[in-house]
Amino acid sequence: MKIFAYGIRDDEKPALEDWEKKNPDVTVGYTQELLTPETAQLAKGSDSAVVYQQLDYTKETLTALAEVGVKNLSLRNVGTDNIDFDAAKELGFNVSNVPVYSPNAIAEHSMIQLSRLLRRTKPMDAKVAKHDLRWAPTIGREMRMQTVGVIGTGNIGRKAINILKGFGAKVIAYDKFPNKELQEEGLYVDSLDDLYAQADAISLYVPGVPENHHLINKDSIAKMKDGVVLVNVSRGNLMDIDAVIDGLNSGKVSDFAMDVYEEEVGLFNEDWSGKEFPDPKIADLIARDNVLVTPHIAFYTTKAVDEMVHQSFDAAVAFAKGETPAIAVKF
Ligand code: COI
Hints:
This protein is 36% helix and 14% strand. It has twelve helices and eleven strands. Helix 1 (13-22) packs across helix 12 (302-320). The longest helix has 19 residues, at 302-320. The structure holds 2-OXO-4-methylpentanoic acid.
C-alpha cells in the first residue's frame, strides 16, 4: 500500500517518522509542495493522498488527482470549507478530516489572546522593551468582570467555555445546534442579537461555511456593546475585516485578536521581515496597540501536529483498504 502526502513541513517529520515506524507495511511518499492540478501527478500509483493546505481543493485539482487514480483524500486539518464537495462527489472521492486533533490548542490560544488584550500586554511589553517601567496608562481589565459571548459550541467552543469558567468570567453562548449539557446549564442566549447586546467580549468557534460568511459585519457590530472585544481564531471569512477596522477606528471595537484572515493564503506562514506586506490592511492591524495578529497558529502545538499526522494517515490506510474511517466526512 502506498500513501502520498502533500505539503509536509519539517515540523511534521518526527510525527510522520513515528507513524511510518508503526506502519512498516505502508510505503509513504511525500513532498513539501501543496496539492495543485500540476502536482497531482506526484501521487500516481498511490492508494490515498494526505493533504494539508488552505488553498482550495477545486474541481480541477480533484480531477487531476482522480486522473492519476487517487480518489482517497485525507486532510490533516479540521476545516473542510476549501473542498469542492460537489466535484468530490461527482468524481467518487472519499474524504476524511481530523475533527478533533486538539481542541484545547485552539481554545487555549483564543483565551490567551483575550486575556492579553484585557491586560494590554502588547503596549506594556513595548514599554518594557523601551525600559519604560511605569504602570500608567496601561491599566488592564479582569476576565471575571467580563461577559464573554461564545459563538459556536462544538469541541473547540466548549473547551474555551471551560477556560473562561476557570477565569470566573460570565459565559453566554449561541449555537444553531445547542449542546445538551450547556443548555441544562442555561448558558445559551436565544439569538445572536441577544449575544451581541450582552457580551463585553465575543469569540468565534464556527466553521467558515458560506452561511457564516461575514457573520461579523457592519450591522452585527452596530448591535454590539460599545468597546466590545473581538477574537477570531476560526476562519478569516467569518469577519468583514473592513467593518472591524471601522469599528476599531470609531472605538466601537476596543480590542481585536485575529489568528485568521480572509486573505491569509500566501501571507501567513511566510517571512516578510525586511519586506513590505503586500496587504496594507495587515500592516495597519499589526501596528495597532489594541490588535493582536497571529498567523494561523492557534492549532500549532506539538500535540496537535502529532494527532493531525497520525489520524490522517490512519484514515488514508482505512480508505485504501476499502473501509470507512470514523473520521470520514459525510457529503
Ligand atoms: C484547521 O485544522 O482547519 C486549521 O485551521 C488549522 C490549519 C492547519 C489549516
